[in-house]
Design a protein that fits this description.
The complex is a heterodimer of chains A (about 240) and B (about 725).
Chain A: H1 2-29, H2 36-69, H3 83-106, H4 121-127, H5 129-133, H6 138-149, H7 153-164, H8 168-192, H9 198-224, H10 228-235
Helix pairs in contact in A: 1-8, 1-9, 2-6, 2-7, 2-8, 3-7, 3-9, 7-8, 9-10
Chain B: E1 21-25, E2 28-32, H1 35-45, H2 51-78, H3 90-121, H4 127-147, H5 155-179, H6 184-187, E3 193-198, E4 201-206, E5 215-218, E6 228-232, E7 235-238, H7 240-243, E8 248-251, E9 256-257, E10 262-263, E11 268-272, H8 280-293, H9 297-327, H10 330-343, H11 347-366, E12 370-371, H12 374-382, E13 385-388, H13 390-394, E14 395-406, H14 411-422, H15 428-439, E15 448-453, E16 457-462, E17 465-470, H16 472-478, H17 484-495, E18 499-505, E19 508-519, H18 523-532, E20 536-540, H19 545-555, E21 559-561, H20 566-575, E22 581-585, H21 591-596, E23 599-603, E24 616-618, H22 626-659, H23 665-684
Parallel strand pairs in B: 13-20, 13-22, 20-21, 22-23, 23-24
Antiparallel strand pairs in B: 1-2, 3-4, 3-5, 5-11, 6-9, 6-11, 7-8, 7-10, 12-24, 14-19, 15-16, 16-17, 17-18, 18-19
The chains are: A mainly alpha (about 240), B alpha+beta (about 725).
Chain lengths: ~240, ~725
């Protein structure tokens, strides 16, 4: 459970980083004129859409990891029979990815998502705003779904973690926990409707960076250290088999 | 194919093809070549208040929400999350999937089904048919499976195939719009609006309703939409679209402006010269539109193949299902059949040629080069021989003093006296003489009592002496003595095609000036670069042999045929039928010859574009771009062939894999979307071809040593006084 608590905390702290972009969207989503309940529903739908995308990415990443690490089955195994080696390599890659994101949060590494796919994506992101003003229940949901796909280092980091687990269900759980972690801040954004003070945001970013660094190191450790497999599992008592 | 060409897609400017989609957007009926372009256009141009655009995104978003949930649970199913003790929940999970899948299939599959039905009513089968049949089968089977409590459902396959296809089409359309970026300023002419000023008030009206004499206001940053004259305001303009050269040109009251140029920094009020649709910009717009609407020969072949392909694939899909149903469970066989249908969608093939061609045309258009026939690029790429016309093509069309022959007098004195007279004349040769004097820094001698003798020359008085410049006839009239050496020299010069001006003072002819049409300053480097590209270059001219020899020597052409009538030029082209021959001319006098060549290229044609016979028109002074045009044509052809080989090869390999049951349907859909994207990406590489580089070789009159193959030396004193 400690493992998922750390994930949740990282999601929570990390969402202060997202407040700049996604928080802006949440604010722009605004309130429903039909009262508080309708406003809450609107924001819950938006966040559900976002969470669905995260879960999907988690399932995809987890399945990918599982496919790579499963020696038999319908799909061909990339790394042959050595289950252990494949899982280790995957864990090392995922860990490195998370550490890179963490360092980026600390400002040590330059942002590496500058070369974002200009291919239709920028155009798409810009036009998403048209959804914010659209009436109906479906618009916030659709908006949340697209929002989840917008390039975000935090999501990359947790998708890497999900892949590192090499299990579809665990991948989903990682992303669910992370996604739920981002709920409070985003809902708060929607209801309070104003941005947090920059100093607090900075603290949030540092906390998130530290937690992601920790998770990254643990994941990396799972891959590198010969005997830490048990240690890592000890920490993450909630791992499904 | 019809000569007028297809109308173009509003989003990517590629021909609509036989089955366009039409949607009312922004109060206007707009046509698109495909569903992807329809989405992308609305995403790009839809305003937030526009319900249609938002509705489309909502549909995609909700479809995505549903299909991602389906995929999520299906992945967990495949990963074995609901086995063992959890097996009891399996029917409920399947039911949940069904509940999710029904609206998802309706939302995402609706457009494909509609397309397929419309096509079916017209009696044809397209890729939409393949998708609709395949997805419908997968959904229908799964629904029955849920009711019968059989263990396998394929709702995920049905929705993911739809989702991936929609995504692929959207990305493809976005890429295509990127390709059309260069064409936008040219195609803007037809739908342009002008702010006309009538009695002090501004009225916005379509540019086609603008007539001569109307006042048009153009704000900074806007495009000037009419040819006209500035009547108020000062600014700079950029005429890159029309001339190919991007630089600031100062405009003040009285300056002419051309339609298509951009007003950079100040408001301008312009009086229109003529009706809006007659501007060169509008003509170019119509020409480009027609070109894009025509299919190149390669594309026509590809389209025929695709047309024959779809029914075959449908039959193959059914056969595959029947075959595999004997060996596997029916649901597995159905999946194999679905893979076959999905993977055979020939989207990329239909895209291969038009995309590369339109990027090529757009890149060339940015430099003011106009392609009037899409097939021309393909032929130009295969061209082995280039025939040049002389006057106005390899020559600059302006006369220069190329030699001064004197009988003792210094050339500075000759020029000073001649220029002193000629600056009062407006004759074409007079300008060349004063320019030559100025370029050598010679001050014209003060001359008075100047009189122009029509058709013969000019005379006046300087330093108490009569000075005259003009023809031999003028000198004979004046009864001035002409040294024998000068006389024979003048005769031989005239025989070789030079214009000769006699200059004399003190009752004696002192010198003769030889004038000639100067070679284009870029001609030599252009011919050199063409040679480096493996092209054989020849000169076909109606001029005298010696004049042609001289020019050929100056620009580096060895294969010369002079003294040809237009018919004779066509005969020469006919003798080279074994090769692909392009003819380069000025488009004025050699129209029929340009039309007779495999590709006609006109340089700086001033004629009406509608009557232009050349397939390719370079801007005035644009000879230097010819190597770039050849490079571009070759790259376009290479890209088209690469795209076609890729698209067909990829389809074929994937189809074989699918028939043998080695490709999952979802993977097949991803593969197909990837194939289209690769074709788009490969075509977009044309954007990276380096821009043309001008290698200036300025030929300066008189001062620079000239590499002229002729007996004329500058300033040689050949005769004694």
């Amino acid at each position: 459970m400690v493992y998922y608590a750390v994930l949740f905390a990282a999601g929570f702290a990390g969402s202060f980083h997202c407040v700049g972009m996604c928080g802006g969207f949440a604010c722009a989503l605004g309130r429903d004129s039909r009262g508080h309940a309708a406003s809450l529903l609107r924001h819950l739908l938006y966040n559900t859409g976002r969470l669905t995308t995260y879960c999907f990415l988690g399932a995809l990443a987890g399945t990918l990891g599982q496919v790579i690490c499963t020696p038999r089955g319908s799909t061909l195994s990339v790394l042959g029979g050595s289950l252990d080696a494949a899982q280790r390599i995957l864990a090392i890659l995922a860990g490195l990815m998370m550490i890179a994101v963490a360092l980026q949060f600390f400002g040590v590494l330059r942002r590496f998502h500058h070369t974002r796919a200009s291919f239709g994506l920028a155009m798409f992101a810009g036009s998403l705003r048209s959804l914010l003003a659209a009436p109906g229940r479906a618009a916030p949901l659709a908006f949340g779904v697209f929002n989840g796909f917008l390039p975000c280092p935090l999501v990359y980091a947790f998708a890497a973690e999900a892949a590192g687990g090499a299990n579809a269900l665990q991948g989903v759980l990682v992303m669910v926990t992370f996604g739920l972690g981002t709920f409070p801040a985003m809902l708060l954004m929607g209801s309070i409707g104003r941005l947090l003070a920059p100093t607090w945001r900075q603290r949030g970013v540092w906390l998130a960076g530290s937690l992601i660094l920790l998770l990254g190191l643990i994941t990396l450790g799972r891959g590198i250290l010969p005997l830490t497999g048990h240690m890592a599992h000890g920490l993450s008592a909630g791992y499904p088999a | 194919m019809n000569g007028q060409g297809d109308p173009l897609c509003r989003h990517c400017w590629i021909p609509l093809g036989s089955r366009p989609i039409s949607r009312p957007i922004g109060g206007e009926e707009r046509a698109f070549c495909c569903y992807g372009c329809c989405i992308a256009f609305q995403v790009k141009h839809g305003q937030s208040e526009e319900w249609e655009a938002a509705w489309l995104l909502i549909r995609l978003g909700v479809g995505g929400f549903l299909s991602m949930n389906i995929m999520l649970f299906s992945l967990l199913l495949y990963a074995g999350a609901f086995t063992g003790g959890d097996a009891r929940v399996l029917p409920w999970v399947q039911l949940l999937l069904w509940i999710f899948a029904t609206p998802a299939v309706a939302i995402l599959g609706g457009p494909y089904l509609r397309e397929a039905l419309i096509d079916a009513r017209r009696g044809c089968l397209t890729s939409s048919t393949l998708i609709a049949v395949g997805v419908g089968a997968a959904y229908g089977y799964s629904a029955v499976a849920v009711l019968e409590r059989s263990p396998h459902v394929y709702f995920d396959t049905a929705t993911m195939v739809l989702m991936l296809f929609t995504l692929g089409r959207y990305l493809e359309a976005a890429g295509r719009a990127k390709a059309a970026r260069n064409l936008e300023p040219l195609l803007a002419a037809e739908n342009a609006w002008a702010n006309t000023v009538v009695a002090g008030t501004e009225i916005r009206r379509p540019v086609r309703e603008v007539d001569a004499g109307m006042l048009v206001r153009v704000r900074p940053g806007e495009r000037i939409v009419v040819d006209g004259v500035v009547v108020e305001g000062e600014s700079h303009t950029d005429e890159a679209v029309m001339t190919g050269e991007s630089r600031k040109i100062t405009k003040a009251v009285g300056s002419p402006v051309i339609a298509g140029s951009i007003n950079l920094d100040g408001p301008l009020l312009i009086r229109s010269n003529g009706p809006g649709p007659t501007t060169r910009w509008a003509q170019i717009c119509r020409s480009v539109r027609e070109t894009l609407g025509r299919r190149s020969p390669v594309q026509r072949v590809a389209d025929h193949l695709v047309g024959a392909f779809v029914p075959l694939v449908l039959a193959l899909g059914i056969l595959t299902v029947l075959y595999w149903a004997q060996e596997l469970a029916f649901d597995r066989a159905l999946l194999v059949g679905l893979s076959v249908l999905v993977v055979a969608c020939p989207c990329a093939v239909g895209l291969a040629a038009p995309l590369a061609t339109s990027i090529g045309i757009g890149r060339l258009a940015r430099w003011g080069c106009l392609v009037r026939d899409p097939g021309a690029l393909e032929v130009l790429a295969r061209t082995q021989r280039l025939a040049f016309d002389k006057t106005g093509t390899l020559t600059s069309g302006t006369t220069q003093v190329v030699a001064i022959e004197s009988a003792g007098a210094a050339r500075e004195e000759v020029l000073a006296r001649a220029a002193g007279l000629e600056r009062y004349s407006e004759h074409a040769l007079a300008g060349a003489i004063t320019k030559a004097a100025a370029s050598l820094g010679v001050e014209p001698v003060l001359t008075h009592d100047v009189r122009v003798i029509a058709g013969r020359g000019i005379r006046g008085r300087a330093d108490e002496q009569v000075v005259a410049a003009g023809s031999a006839a003028l000198m004979r009239e004046l009864i001035w003595t002409l040294p024998q050496a000068l006389a024979s020299r003048a005769q031989s010069l005239e025989r070789s095609g030079y214009a000769v001006v006699y200059v004399g003072w003190g009752r004696e002819v002192r010198a003769i000036l030889a004038l000639d049409d100067a070679p284009d300053p870029d001609a030599r480097s252009t011919v050199e670069q063409l040679g480096r590209r493996g092209l054989r270059v020849m000169l076909l001219t109606g001029d005298l042999e010696q004049a042609a020899q001289r020019l050929a020597g100056a620009v580096g052409i060895t294969d010369i045929q002079a003294g040809l009538s237009p018919e004779a030029k066509r005969e020469v082209l006919g003798r080279h039928r074994s090769e692909v021959v392009a003819m380069v001319g000025d488009g004025l006098n050699d129209g029929p010859v340009l039309a007779a060549a495999d590709v006609g290229i006109a340089v700086g044609s001033g004629t009406d574009l509608a009557r232009e016979t050349a397939a390719l028109v370079l801007p005035p002074g644009g000879l230097w771009m010819l190597p770039f045009v050849i490079d571009m044509a070759r790259s376009v052809r290479k890209t088209i062939l690469g795209n076609l080989i890729w698209a067909f090869g990829y389809n074929l390999v994937a189809l074989i894999l699918a028939v043998f049951g080695l490709l999952q349907p979802v993977l097949a859909a991803a593969v197909m979307a990837g194939s289209s994207l690769l074709v788009v990406a490969n075509s977009l590489r044309l954007e990276r071809l380096p821009d043309p580089a001008r290698v200036p070789m300025a030929a300066q009159p008189l001062s620079a040593p000239r590499d002229v193959a002729g007996p004329v030396g500058v300033g040689t004193v050949t005769a004694a006084g």
